[in-house]
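pinging the channel bc i need a second pair of eyes. not urgent but kinda urgent?? the chain im working w is below, pasted from the shared doc
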Amino acid sequence: VQLVESGGGLVQPGGSLRLSCATSGFASDAVAMGWFRQAPGKGREGVACIGSSDGTIGGSTYYGDSVRGRFTISRDNEKNTVYLEMINLKPEDTAVYYCATDLEPGATCGVHYWGEGTLVTVSP
C-alpha cells in the first residue's frame, strides 16, 4: 500500500491549489479515501472524505466545516488517484496535507495508511 501526495506549495490568500494522492497496491475506488491536515502546533484535522465507488454509496463526499464550500474531493479511478481541489485559500489553511485510508469500503474515512504529506502555505 502506497500513498503519495503532491501539489502543495506557496499560494497567496484567495488563491487555489489542487493536491493529488497517487495510490498503489490497492484499488482506491473500492475504499473510502480521505484528506487530513495538520497545522504547526495543532492536532490532525479531517478535511474531506470520499466514499467507495460501489453502487450504494456511489462515492459520497463529506467535508469539514472549515473547508466546506471551498474544497472539493474527487477521484480518477483509472489513474488510482484522489484529488483535493482547494479554492479561496486562507492563511488558516496552512498545514501539511495527508491522504489516508484504512482500506475499508463504505463512507467512513479511516487513517490506518498514510502518505508522507504535502505542505500547503497560504501567505501574502
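so The radius of gyration is 14 Å. and The mean pLDDT is 93. — does that match what u expected or am i reading it wrong
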